[in-house]
């Protein structure tokens, strides 16, 4: 025992933390799978791979990977459009691209994505997730698009009020949410059992005790659901839409994982994340998940923060949590069949709510309205159009905003009534500000000499330089003295 303690000095802390993470991960793995429209066991497969494969690899030592609520909407859409068989191809391709990006040391560039875009992405996912799971909580079929989900809620509520079974199902889902919200107010001793697990356990017990007529999880068996993609599935790669889905999976899974890593680094004082290695670890995990036909994985902040809070010290805790998931899936699969679907819907409604940054929107609007606008537009675009195009719209807005701010320019005209007119340009002269610059310069009197001082410019792009030269030539051709130009202090072109 002493030799084991010497070899693994933190084994006790990691073992305890692994049990906590397992209990947090179990209901989430199942819930995400059901909400994604795939067999519940595939969520466990992804959780197992996240522990046993990604958990062993270098990158971020304490963050835990598995199926994430943030990809639920995208996975459901992909399965609905291309079939379950194509999911393995999509996830496999995502993993290979992540491995390549990590090898090319592109991981750090994901940290350059605007935080407002990421928060808007998560908010949009949260809105669609909540709307969709409200239908599931009532035992109703949800519409396919995000807009239809939201618009159809009043009608769904009316249908639920007229059905005893729907009201029973909805009450069970609402009770699950209430337990999770109130669980944090209990004494710390009670909170050693994760709220999600307690809520699902209570809902399962109530369903069994009162014989409630609600839908439960369908169980197929772990080996039966593992279906590597075949040749027909790979043939779908010729579909442009599927290629766009792969890009969306890669972008969102990578960004969510690396942003999670940054958040986890703030929770502990241990080794910092190596972003390129972490991206490759996520890629390795997704490659294995793709081969097995399972759900995509990301690093999950809920499990990761639980891991840190439980006292984990090394990556052993996340590996062991994968072992516990494997043992559960292999030895106790029939337990899944007892879990009521409204309880899982309640868990995901709670997860979706936490994806929406309610607390930060008002301060962001007060201090940085442009960033707040990007967040809101990204979220609304995801709901109105789809995940991939919504994120692209957010990224495009972010680039435009940055370009606009980077082109800050001030033009000061000094006219003493006699002698040349002095025009001083300071800041960054880019094509975005060109119309305003030319409008002001062309308004100057044609019969007066002009001194154009560019020494205060930090940047002068080619379009602006050419336009200013053409303006100076036109001004001079009117018969006045040539425009005297003072060049920028730095060679900015």
TrEMBL record:
<keyword id="KW-0472">Membrane</keyword>
<dbReference type="InterPro" id="IPR011547">
    <property type="entry name" value="SLC26A/SulP_dom"/>
</dbReference>
<feature type="transmembrane region" description="Helical">
    <location>
        <begin position="166"/>
        <end position="183"/>
    </location>
</feature>
<feature type="transmembrane region" description="Helical">
    <location>
        <begin position="42"/>
        <end position="62"/>
    </location>
</feature>
<keyword id="KW-0812">Transmembrane</keyword>
<feature type="transmembrane region" description="Helical">
    <location>
        <begin position="373"/>
        <end position="400"/>
    </location>
</feature>
<protein>
    <submittedName>
        <fullName>SulP family inorganic anion transporter</fullName>
    </submittedName>
</protein>
<feature type="transmembrane region" description="Helical">
    <location>
        <begin position="113"/>
        <end position="135"/>
    </location>
</feature>
<dbReference type="InterPro" id="IPR001902">
    <property type="entry name" value="SLC26A/SulP_fam"/>
</dbReference>
<keyword id="KW-1133">Transmembrane helix</keyword>
<feature type="transmembrane region" description="Helical">
    <location>
        <begin position="237"/>
        <end position="259"/>
    </location>
</feature>
<feature type="transmembrane region" description="Helical">
    <location>
        <begin position="195"/>
        <end position="217"/>
    </location>
</feature>
<feature type="domain" description="SLC26A/SulP transporter">
    <location>
        <begin position="11"/>
        <end position="378"/>
    </location>
</feature>
<dbReference type="Pfam" id="PF00916">
    <property type="entry name" value="Sulfate_transp"/>
</dbReference>
<feature type="transmembrane region" description="Helical">
    <location>
        <begin position="15"/>
        <end position="35"/>
    </location>
</feature>
<feature type="transmembrane region" description="Helical">
    <location>
        <begin position="323"/>
        <end position="353"/>
    </location>
</feature>
<feature type="transmembrane region" description="Helical">
    <location>
        <begin position="82"/>
        <end position="101"/>
    </location>
</feature>
